[in-house]
Structures are given as C-alpha cells and as structure tokens.
Amino acid sequence: MSDEQVPDGRPIGRRAFFGVVGVGITGLLWGDQVARLVAKSTTVLPAPVRSAIPLGEGWRIYSVNPPFPHFHPATWRLEIDGLVERPQRFTLDDLQALPAAQQVSDFHCVTGWSVNDVRWRGVRFDDLLASAGLLPNATALSFVSSEKPYVDTLTLEQIRAAPDAMLALEMDGKPLTREHGAPARVVMPQMYGYKGVKWVQRITVTDTVKDGYWEQRGYDRDAYVGRSNGL
Ligand SMILES: Nc1nc2c(c(=O)[nH]1)N[C@H]1C(S)=C(S)[C@@H](COP(=O)(O)O)O[C@H]1N2
Ligand SMILES: [Mo]
C-alpha cells in the first residue's frame, strides 16, 4: 500500500489502516465459516490470512445491515432530489419506460474476487436525470441505499467518463434478485464494487463529495480498479 492518507487527509500508518479495514471486513456478510473464525480471532486481518481464505467462484453477497431490504413493486419509489430543477419520484414502471442501456463488464470487489462478463441492463444516468434537470452547480450524485447506512457518491465527471455506468435493473437477463439489490443498483465497472450501491432508494444531486460507507473506513473515493488503495 503506497497511499497512507485517509480520504480526509489525516495520515495513518499501515497498521492503523489494516485495523480499520479489518474491522470493516468483519461487517461484511461472508457466509463463510473460515472468515468468521478469522474475524473472531483478530480485528487486524493480515494480508497472508486474507488471501488464504478460500473464496470459491462467483458472487459473494454483501450486506452491511442484514436482512436484505424487501422491495414492494406497488409502493417502491426512487427519489431524485438535491440540486435539481424538479425533484422526481419514479415508480419501477417509470424507470422501465426510460431509454434502456445494456453492457457487459467484469465486476471486481476490492477484497480480491471478480466475476467476469456480467450482463447489465438499466438506465444511463443522463437519461435518468433528464426530467429532473441538473442545476448549474451540480457536481456529484450521492446514492442512498434503503439498507442503512450504506451510501456512496460518484462525481458527474466520473460518470460521464464511464460509458457503461448505469442504474441497473437487470443482471444476466433477469430482474435484479433481492440479494443483488432489487430493484435497482449502481454499476460503475471502472471502479471496485463498493461504489455500486445496492437497493438504491434515493439519488441526491450535490455540489460536494462525501465519503461513502467503505470510504469512511479507509478506502479511496476514486476507486478505480488497479489505481486505488484496494487490497
Ligand atoms: N447496500 C449495499 N450495497 C453494496 C454493498 C453493501 O454491503 N450494501 N456492498 C458493496 C460491495 S463491497 C460489493 S463488492 C458489491 C457486491 O455485490 P453483490 O452483493 O451483488 O455480490 O456490492 C456493493 N454494494
Ligand atoms: Mo466489495
């Protein structure tokens, strides 16, 4: 790890950083006896132990505050607020009526597992925000999960530089399942998975970038795969 700054500029040592991250990792839902044992035995998870945990293939389902939120199609709404001309409340039908985008990309979690060739379908952020209308001072989108307190932020610049960033409604040809964030999650393939907020309930347009859930715990805001302080 070359970068020993936490996002607010406070310098921290390598040990302290792993301490913070180690505690954070115990909060993830590993569903894995080995991980639970490791998490119990120490709050600092050293690199060799991390890589020795047998992770298997495919998706790990993560949640910081289980049980996973339930979504009810009749009452669910996506709120768009903050620095917009006209705040919006979208039903799922409203979202499905917007221009749809599709893409295939590899998914990378910062803890070392990946899933290749994931097919996502959803709505590009420009299409999603068109009816709301951004105010001139808008610079970022803050994604609030219905799973409290999970939140993360992407700047409009980052989103516009990413042709395949989207609010996804489908994965691999099927509506998002509950554990993968139904009915809507953020997909930003250039960045690690923690930027991809599941169970998105509200998008607040802001002129500041606040630390997301994992960023408050030491990970980079600019979470570009291979170019950030990922493990
Ligand atoms: N609401 C919420 N979104 C979340 C997370 C979470 O714990 N809660 N974990 C993030 C992380 S670290 C990863 S790698 C991906 C994992 O996606 P999956 O659970 O669909 O495999 O979700 C991201 N989005
Ligand atoms: Mo992750």
Explain what the structure shows.
With 231 residues, the protein is an alpha+beta fold. The protein has a domain of 153 residues: Oxidoreductase, molybdopterin-binding domain (Sulfite Oxidase, Chain A, domain 2, Alpha-Beta Complex), CATH 3.90.420.10. 19% of the residues lie in helices and 24% in strands. The chain has 6 helices and 10 strands; from the N terminus they run αααββαββαββαββββ. The protein has a 5-stranded mixed sheet with strand order 2-1-10-5-6. Strands 3, 4, 7, 8 and 9 form a 5-stranded antiparallel sheet that branches. A hairpin with a 5-residue loop joins strand 5 and strand 6. It starts with 13 loop residues before the first helix and ends in a 25-residue tail after the last strand. The N terminus is likely disordered. The protein binds ligand MTE and molybdenum atom (MO). The site of molybdenum atom (MO) has 6 residues, from loops.
What topology emerges from the helices and strands here?
Elements: H1 14-26, H2 33-41, H3 47-52, E1 78-82, E2 88-90, H4 92-97, E3 101-108, E4 114-123, H5 125-129, E5 140-145, E6 151-155, H6 156-160, E7 166-171, E8 174-175, E9 185-187, E10 200-206
Parallel strand pairs: 1-10
Antiparallel strand pairs: 1-2, 3-4, 4-7, 5-6, 5-10, 7-8, 7-9
The structure holds the ligand Nc1nc2c(c(=O)[nH]1)N[C@H]1C(S)=C(S)[C@@H](COP(=O)(O)O)O[C@H]1N2 and molybdenum atom.
The ligand Nc1nc2c(c(=O)[nH]1)N[C@H]1C(S)=C(S)[C@@H](COP(=O)(O)O)O[C@H]1N2 is lined by residues 59-64, 109, 145, 147, 150, 180, 193-194, 196-199.
